[in-house]
Amino acid sequence: MAEWSVKKEDVQSTVDGDFLIYRNRPLVRENNIICYGDMAEKYYLKMIVMTEKEYKGKKVPDQIYLQLLSTDTTVPESQRVVKAIMKAGLSEALELGVAWLERYLEASN
Fold first, then answer.
1. In a domain, 12, yes or no
2. What is the Cα–Cα distance from 104 to 10, expressed in whole angstroms?
3. For residue 56, what are the domain limits?
4. pLDDT tens digits, one per residue of 21-62
């Protein structure tokens, strides 16, 4: 298994205006859909919260349908899906999705 080496100063997680910035890209949630990535780039992530569970008295995302999508708007969204998988937990889905996104963006340059 490959090990990721990320320097703390290279990762920014801040609230900037209307968006949360995570690892230098916008992270936006509306209802049960979470989008991560810059629409000016070739790909972005879409995470759909399929189920929630109770944790310490609060509802948290449980089953997440993760998709890596192309930003090419000339193609219907259903045909822009590059990769997709169901994951348990938001953390696991986001970690895998960020790896996919970075790999595909690097390959497209």
1. no
2. 19
3. 26-108
4. 888 899 998 999 999 999 999 999 999 999 999 999 999 999
